[in-house]
Write a structure and sequence with these properties.
By secondary structure, the protein is mostly helical. The protein has two domains: 30 residues; 230 residues, MetI-like (MetI-like fold), CATH 1.10.3720. Helices cover 77% and strands 0% of the residues. The longest helix is centred in the first third of the chain and has 34 residues.
Length: 287
């Protein structure tokens, strides 16, 4: 009976903590989240509702708004996918290999966390501009990065990489080498060991890192506006469009775009959360 109650997919009745104070800590947590997150977001939605349904729908269906939303969400999704591949690779190198300068590389991964986003945007623009170090080389192949959507993706890859590495790295450290050796002993190839043994254990962490990198990328502003070019219908992001609305004193219009971003972000993160829950149940992880 108890095994059924605690198995993946069944009910999971946790034992109460020996430490007292659940009601107090739970109440403080709910109050904290309500004051800092729920109330401001509710006010945003209520303020946008002042436009009426017709006004809100007009802004939502405006071609400039649609292009800006497509740019923000599309580039954030692509950048998060790129970071999943290379973030897992970087985490693997840091966990499984010992080499000179390893601690330095480990510290460099966290630089996007500490570096102001505007500084990151200026640096990336200087490097990838047509007369920059890398941009001038790419221009010889008729490839332009700065002031295009490609530049936005690069900026979002830059600020999103630490989310993947720092999420996957602790889980990867817990995977014993003996598991890989056992798979090799049973005749598994390297690819089969990675695909059938290592990745299933990392899948929940990878999805978490992807969600964090994606969420950060959707709302990113400082590092993007310098390298994006900010051309309407081409490389204009939704956060910039909100700022433009505010500069035009169209506060309800800005709130309407913010509400749309809030809804779309919540929907995509909810889907990712469902995938996380499914992967945990599939591979036998307890929540």
């Amino acid at each position: 009976m108890s095994s059924w109650l605690t198995r993946p997919g069944g009910f999971n009745f946790r034992q109460p903590s020996v430490l007292p104070g659940f009601r107090l800590t739970f109440g403080l947590s709910v109050a904290y989240l309500t004051l800092l997150i729920l109330i401001p977001l509710a006010v945003l939605v209520l303020y946008a509702s002042g436009l009426g349904w017709a006004g809100f729908w007009r802004i939502a269906m405006d071609q400039r708004t649609l292009y800006a939303l497509q740019t923000s969400f599309g580039t954030a999704f692509l950048a998060a996918l790129i970071n999943v591949v290379f973030g897992v690779l970087v985490a693997w190198v840091l966990v499984r290999y010992r080499f000179p300068g390893r601690r330095l590389v480990d510290a460099i991964v966290d630089l996007p966390f500490a570096l102001p986003t505007a500084v990151a945007g200026i640096a990336l623009t200087a490097v990838y501009a047509p007369n920059g170090w890398i941009g001038s080389i790419l221009m010889q192949f008729n490839t332009r990065v700065a002031f295009t959507k490609a530049g936005i993706v690069i900026a979002l890859v830059f600020i999103g990489l630490p989310f993947i590495v720092r999420t996957v790295q602790p889980i990867m450290e817990e995977i014993s080498r003996e598991v890989e050796e056992a798979a090799a002993t049973l005749g598994a190839s390297r690819f089969q060991t990675i695909w059938r043994v290592l990745l299933p254990g990392l899948q929940p962490a990878i999805l978490t890192g992807f969600a964090l990198a994606f969420a950060r990328g959707v709302g990113e502003y400082g590092s993007v506006i310098f390298i994006a070019g900010n051309t309407p219908y081409v490389s204009e992001i939704a956060p910039l469009l909100i700022v433009i609305k505010l500069e035009e004193f169209d506060y309800r219009g800005a709130a309407a775009i913010g509400t749309i971003m809030l809804f779309l972000s919540f929907l995509m993160l909810f889907i990712i959360n469902l995938l996380q829950s499914w992967s945990r149940r599939k591979y036998g992880y307890q929540n």
